[in-house]
Design a protein that fits this description.
By secondary structure, the protein is an alpha+beta fold. The protein is built from nine helices and 15 strands. The longest helix has 15 residues.
Length: about 325
Amino acid sequence: MAGATQTDRDCYCRNFREHRGCTQTGAPNATTSGSYQGPISTEMLILSCSSKLQQLEATLRRLLPETLQVHSVVMNINRGNPAGHEVLVDTWPEFKAILTRPHREVASDNADFYTNTYAAFYRDLGANQALLGSAVNWGQAFCILGLQNGVYEASRDIAKAKAVQLEASRYFTYLHPDPSTMPEIRLDLSVRLSSLDVSHADLLNETWAFGRNDNRRRYLANLIRHFPSVCLLDAAGRPVSWIITDPFGIMTHGYTLPQHRGRGYIQVLLNVMAKQMHTWGYPSYCHVAVDNYPMQRLQERQGFQCQPNWCHFILQNIALHRTPTLTPSPEAGTAPA
């Protein structure tokens, strides 16, 4: 690495070519999934040194909101790395592209695209395409998140070269500029505020439109176990409404049991969760489906601001070949519960 000190070399820990059996050469990268003929950088690095990761976190914070997803992953890595993710850059410290991904042992299920999720940010389109082409495991189901159009465009071009089928969806991103200014909301006396525990994973799995299988239950249980959540419990101690967060800092999986809807529970939980994330230093944001108009109105009433860039949700779903949703759309004519 030109210009790098021995300390820098030690901090990088290992070169990209040593990880997950991927190659790193100046020649095009070929895999069993197809052949990608784009440019491959000769210096793709897994950034593992704590001081470098702290420096990266500060840099990504200055680049918000385009870095929302990668920034939150780096924050989580710097605070114990509960999801088992890692960060790749094309070069350091003047990086042009960043990709976060789960460790190989975490992404062990080739059909689990929710766990096998990447987040991308770039300053240079070519570097972004090279990193996506080499660092993503194109032989398994996965999801790529990005708030820049080039993330989708590069993924599409690589998939075409590899003869891989992708599905893509776009979502609005709502970010609150200062959750500490959100007004307090009076809580219904028939419920009490709490957080979810792993025993509630079955309930979330059964009520999630894309759940109802063992993979999704494990995914939800891991989110509950490792990331903040908030819920409302009835008099018997059963959750009736909830919101959880994920490795990307997204407030997601908001749901209210049908018999408890129309009482403003999601509004209460969104308020509480946003304030908690802000207190811990995380941006308070979520993604909303483009046709989920009631949730969009709720976000705006709470002071969240719709960001100019789409969130691209890019999926290779080997098992189901259907696109999941981050925020399920309500039935026509219904309002958020």
